[in-house]
Amino acid sequence: MTFEFKIIKNDLRSRARTGLIKTSHGNIQTPYFVPVATSATVRALDSQDLEDLGAQCTLANTYHLHLRPGDKLIQRMGGVRGFMDFDKPIFTDSGGFQAFSLGYGREHNINKLGNIFPEGKKTKEAEEKFAFVDDDGVKFVSIYDGIKHFMSPKDSMEIQSNLGADIIMAFDECTSPLHDYDYTKKALERTHRWAKQSLEYKDPKQALYGIIQGGWFKDLRLLSAEFINSLSFEGIAIGGSLGKSKKDMHKILDWVIPLLDKRPRHLLGIGDIDDIFECVERGIDTFDCVQPTRIARRASLYIRPESGGCPKNKFRINIKAAANKEDQNPIDQNCDCPTCRRYSRAYLRHLYIVNELTYFRIASIHNMHYMLRLMSDIRKSIMNNTFSELKKKWLD
Ligand SMILES: [Zn+2]
Q1: What digits encode the pLDDT tens for the residues 200-219?
Q2: Which of 255, 289, 323 finishes a domain?
Q3: What's the CA gap between 238 and 340, in Å, rounded?
Q4: What is the pTM of this model?
């Protein structure tokens, strides 16, 4: 296994840093936003599109690929890399997050930050309906066919070995923001046992990231950061419920990051533009999130601050808006992506309204290009000691 992480430059005024992750299948310059290929494709894009966009790597979802088409089939097809013919570093998650959250989270409309709180306290029932966890692993119901499955840390390591990623995640219990202290503590102890089991059962050809949990409880997060940092993982991920607001998430990072050594740090499932800046500033190296393509499918297209977004969200425009009906300008006049070089807002709006499949591809190309360019700008700014100026320019 080749896995190395080198810090190239530390920002002088914050914990931001640029670095290089080396794997057997290529390098990743950090900070980096890892495009998510849920079912071995970034939705609406193919591997050629990813290459053309200069994507350095991708992250595939263990839960989805285990259930469909099956990790053993993928192994026979050359792993995720061979299957999707994408010859770059590949991450997989552990499958735990989806096993816990799909169904349960969906039922309660809880997103990662838990901004949307369900009324009442039906958590236990809902949890047992969709996922049941004990010390051995998690029993869960497939979202595809309702069939019951079981996944243990050993299973997760085997599945991720079959999928053949370069960078894999330890199996953990991702608690909900609705869980109280006592439950979160119990789940954390389980996660820590599973972290050790993940190390024991992992494929030696793969680099394994341990996951820090602990919800939004400071002592649990500190405990988890110290424990995970003490084990021989190749990298460290921060997962789970990151509090009730963005401020809570920043606080959690401020607690845990100082306890970590120089291994690469991955933040699971975060991808808002302001969060990217805040989390890079706090020392995060890689992110993954479905946001760029998901919001593109819902008519939200990214726009750079100098190009003028909508008042509600300065980083986005709503392509559906009537104002775009006869607008011959590109989505963003300061964007040089293939979509903006060629097509007008009016054309994209039309394709969206008539539900043409082409819309999904060209809108996703723009949003992904935007995100990758932002990461490149952030890396350059750290190199030039201008990260805080760039952050100010974007967020103020
Ligand atoms: Zn563009």
Answers
A1: 999 999 999 999 999 999 99
A2: 289
A3: 35
A4: 0.94
